[in-house]
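User: Please run a holo structure prediction.
Assistant: Happy to. Please share the sequence and the ligand.
User: Here you go; the ligand is 1,3-dihydroxyacetonephosphate.
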Amino acid sequence: MTSRRPLIAGNWKMYKTCSEAEDTAREIVKNLPDMPDVEIMIAPPATALAPVFSIIRDTPVELGGQNMFWEAQGAYTGEVSGPMLVSAGCSYVIIGHSERRQYFGETDDSVNRKINAAKAAGLTPIICVGETETERDAEKTFSVLDKQMENGLESLSADSFKGVVIAYEPVWAIGTGRTATAQQAQEVHARLRKFLDKRFGGDIASQTRIVYGGSVKPENIAELMALEDIDGALVGGASLKPDTFSKIINYKR
Ligand code: 13P
């Protein structure tokens, strides 16, 4: 039995206006279990963070940003900082999502800077790593992940890493309906935990939550959560509909 409290997080990506986001948050809150046995987080777009926080603030649902810049403030038009996310009610921030790497030039180096800035602001970073289909087919999955982990976590001490969440999101499984098989996911999660063991030691490795993302839905959540090294899920498409997300949160019932 692990003592890691599972985390189920909804990444709403660039969906929902403020009023749509508020409606969705209200529905999610309505269908919460009395005593959720998983930690629940939702990450609406930046414009909807504060309005959504006003709905979830007295509930067990946590709020997360989908990205942040590493400076606390300055002349960086269009960016949002860690302290700004905190002021909007966030306790989490997603960093290095593959869509940010693919479309917005995010690199392991920027991921590294953002982790440090997020920790300094008091946010819990969720660091996304994952291989593309081409990389998997070429049997480069482990070497790609090792590089993302090594460079993304460069120069972090065990103390400063503590609490960080890792999200394994195989790029080929995102938004495609193709989930990694339980065996594929478990194999990679175990490898990531081994990496953490070597890098930060056994205590950190056994405490760190490693969540899976990529076409998670009510039909496959229970099978994924049953695996030893899977400590939760980062849900995209299926988190946009409150009834589907509620089914995922309530996967044990
Ligand atoms: P989907 O659940 O839509 O595949 O997206 C996964 C994801 O990118 C979560 O961050």
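The domain at 7-249 is CATH 3.20.20.70 (TIM Barrel).
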